Amino acid sequence: MKASELRQLSIAELRAKEKELRKELMEMRFKKSIGRLDNPAKYRQLKRDLARVLTVIREKELGIR
After folding, report:
1. What's 3-60's CATH class?
2. I need a labelling partner for 51 at 20 to 30 A (CA). Which of 1, 15, 29, 33 fits?
3. Cβ(16)–Cβ(58) under 8 Å?
4. Cα gap 36→27, rounded to integer Å
5. Residues 14, 7: Cα–Cα separation, whole Å
6. DSSP string, the chain
7. What is the rounded distance in angstroms from the CA atom of residue 16 to the CA atom of residue 30?
8. Distance in angstroms (rounded) separating the CA atoms of residues 17 and 37
9. How does pLDDT run across 11-53, given as a tens digit for each residue?
């Protein structure tokens, strides 16, 4: 997911996306702890996507973009 795509969403949609990513990340963290993680690269990608969403939310709150 690209930041330019995220910037087109409203803050409410971004908050929903954040919630979804946090839930998915928690599930992957659990799978990782029991050794059942299928795709370790996806875990890293989820963390980055969550960071992008949080960055865009903050930009919108500050009125930067």
Report:
1. mainly alpha
2. 33
3. no
4. 11
5. 9
6. --HHHHHTS-HHHHHHHHHHHHHHHHHHHHHHHTT--S-HHHHHHHHHHHHHHHHHHHHHHHT--
7. 21
8. 22
9. 999 999 999 999 999 999 999 899 898 898 999 999 999 999 9
